[in-house]
Design goal:
- It is a single chain.
- This protein starts with a strand and ends in a 7-residue tail after the last helix.
- It is an alpha+beta fold.
- It has a six-stranded antiparallel sheet. It has a six-stranded antiparallel sheet with strand order 4-5-6-7-11-12, with helices on one face.
- The protein has a domain at 2-220: Glutamine Phosphoribosylpyrophosphate, subunit 1, domain 1 (4-Layer Sandwich).
- A hairpin with a 5-residue loop joins β11 and β12 (216-220).
């Protein structure tokens, strides 16, 4: 796990490359490496977190002829198998067990098909000086980030936006479309960012750049595609899922440094903890943070799981209000806005875990692949309400706005209003609209221009309409996995963990396990009101039944209450066309208890603090 950056096809003086590496040094505290070939207009930078092949795994890493080099962020879990295949084809390795070197030889053998052979999380840039090419790729689910910015004749790349902003040629003007989509989703769907000059390489994509002509080609080598055709008996499916979970866990145990486990006490992380023993992990510690306010504390469930499985467990208890002081520094450190307030406890947990281990397994991906989120339960009600006139739905939504505003986590008034506002949108837009910081008409007022739902949710609509063969529930799985997972959940975990030089590994995103989930019919994901049905059947073999079937609860913090008086002075720097005065009105209504604007207010703070970190100009594009 590391931070990568570089400039291809354009000038990059040594001091600029050094500044770009310094901007992401937190991702790789164990050392830096550089390569510059000004005559070829290639500059590569690397900040290393040493996890595998500590002695000889420095980067940029080159082949024996010094013609093919790579900077790489992530882990290739099947690197040992690939090494054996490549050795059988005549390749000779200099390292003992470097997964980075597998990329170099894999490029020589398979070329641009290389990503299709990889089971792992990765973002890398391979420079082939002999062929005059630079090849970049990102893993299929987007666990590892990769940002791009155009420069005259070429581009800059980096693991975080901050690395690109350290280059004087990268513009920092706001992107109207990126900002509007952010307010409509709470995250920014790829390829957009909040900056006009910076884009994300989408998950599962690759790009080739020709050093001689400056031409580039981008394509998607792997897309999440539901094909629910597995009709085997339920008992066979339970057996296979159990096996795949253990196999995926075993693959993620490779490390030359201490390894641990994020344990929330929820189904996914508890199930992975049960897999550790069966995967031959030996003594692996699990880690939980608790809060001294019972309504937000789930540490007792994590301790129950650890006791049941005989795990060595560590707990650190905070005051919930301890996290209040983290809002500004954490959001400033993101370098891309994210309205998901669970970034704060995730950041706290990562800081705690890093004091003891360098690598931690996580349960990310389980809710997306196996239908674990609350909106899945809302679909049946939404279909029944489709028979009601839109005007009546609008009146009901306005009525919920007159209910006393509660600061409780997922209060009834909050959920009812979110549901009804989403119900006013076409079916293809409802999933993101249910979770949106603002609705399209509000975004239009805030930005001073009209935004239609069709524009704001274009990615979700295209994906929804492309699969008329799927049920509404299946298309919701598709949305959460294709958009919410990479650009919210995985982005959040990456930034929180890497802020502390901690590597996080998502067990559920193993290729074989994800392929199984793609083929699994919806009746094994939801049945009779039971979500993650098949996953719970596996969990019943290894965990107490009350732990398996307890109500799901997110990584909650009292953000609605905090925002009644935090921050003392609301930041309101002009950003693009956004109207700071209108944002102040939302804050005033929330603080007076007249409305619950928690989603927008946190989104606004994330936006303000992200921009102030980058020194973004005030004009728009």
């Amino acid at each position: 796990m590391c931070g990568i950056t570089g400039v291809i096809g354009a000038d990059c003086p040594p001091e600029t490359l050094a500044a770009m590496i310094a901007a992401i040094a937190h991702r790789g505290p164990d050392g830096t490496g550089t390569f510059r070939a000004p005559e070829r207009r290639v500059a590569l930078g690397h900040a290393r977190l040493s996890v595998i092949d500590i002695a000889t795994g420095a980067q940029p890493m080159w082949n024996a002829q010094a013609t093919v080099g790579v900077v790489f962020n992530g882990e290739i879990y099947n690197h040992a198998e690939l090494r054996s295949q490549l050795e059988a084809k005549g390749h000779r390795f200099a390292s003992d067990h470097s997964d980075t070197e597998v990329l170099i030889h894999g490029w020589a053998e398979w070329g641009e098909a290389l990503p299709t052979y990889l089971n792992g999380m990765f973002a890398f840039a391979i420079t082939d000086l002999a062929a005059g090419k630079v090849f970049l790729a990102r893993d299929r689910f987007g666990e590892k980030p990769l940002y791009l910015a155009d420069l005259p004749g070429g581009f800059a790349f980096g693991s975080e936006v901050a690395a690109l902003l350290a280059h004087p040629g990268v513009g920092d003007a706001p992107c109207d479309t990126g900002l509007a989509k952010y307010l409509a989703h709470g995250f920014i769907p790829a390829p957009f960012t909040h900056l006009a000059g910076v884009k994300k390489l989408p998950a599962g994509c690759q790009m080739t750049f020709d050093l001689a002509t400056g031409q580039r080609q981008q394509s998607q080598y792997r897309d999440f595609t539901l094909a629910p055709v597995d009709d085997r008996p339920e008992s066979d499916l339970i057996d296979e899922l159990d096996h795949l979970l253990v196999q995926a866990t075993r693959r993620r145990l490779m490390a030359d440094v201490p390894l641990g486990m994020f344990l929330s006490g929820g189904l996914d992380s508890s199930l992975i903890l049960s897999c550790l023993g069966r995967a031959g992990a030996g003594a692996v510690e699990s880690f939980t943070i608790g809060f001294n306010e019972p309504s937000f504390d789930e540490s007792a469930f994590a301790e129950q799981a650890a006791r049941h499985l005989g795990a060595s467990h560590r707990l650190e208890v905070f005051s919930v209000d301890d996290a209040r002081d983290l809002i500004e520094p954490v959001l400033r450190g993101m370098s891309e806005p994210l309205s998901d307030a669970s970034i704060l406890p995730t950041w706290q947990l990562s800081r705690f875990v890093r004091r003891h281990v360098t690598v931690a397994l996580s349960g990310d991906g389980g809710d997306e692949l196996f239908a674990g989120y609350a909106p899945f339960r809302a679909l049946a009600t939404a279909r029944r309400l489709n028979r009601l006139p839109g005007a009546l739905i609008g009146a009901m939504a306005r009525a919920t706005g007159r209910l006393p505003a509660s600061a409780r986590y997922m209060s009834l008034d909050f959920k009812a209003r979110r549901f009804l506002l989403g119900q006013m949108q076409p079916m293809a837009c409802r999933t993101p609209a249910w979770m949106a910081p603002l609705q399209p008409d509000e975004i239009s007022r805030l930005t001073g221009r009209e935004w239609r739902a069709e524009d704001l949710y274009s990615e979700a609509i295209s994906a929804w309409n492309a699969r008329p063969d799927l049920s509404d529930e299946e298309r919701m799985v598709d949305y959460f996995t294709r958009f919410y997972l990479p650009d919210d959940i995985l982005m959040k975990t990456d930034r929180a963990a890497m802020a502390h030089g901690l590597e996080s590994r998502a067990v559920f995103l193993d290729n074989d396990l994800a392929d199984f989930a793609e083929r699994l019919p919806m009746r094994f994901k939801m049945r009779g009101g039971v979500q993650k049905y098949l996953l719970k059947k596996v969990a019943e073999r290894h965990l107490p039944r009350d732990l398996v079937h307890r109500s799901k609860k997110g990584f909650g913090i009292p953000v609605a209450r905090w925002l009644r008086d935090t921050p003392k002075v609301v930041p309101d720097a002009p950003i693009g066309r956004l109207d700071p005065a209108l944002a102040q009105e939302y804050f005033a209504a929330h603080r007076a208890g007249k409305a619950d604007h928690r989603l927008f207010l946190f989104a606004w703070l994330a936006l303000q603090y992200s921009y102030s970190r980058g020194g973004v100009t005030r004009e728009t594009t």
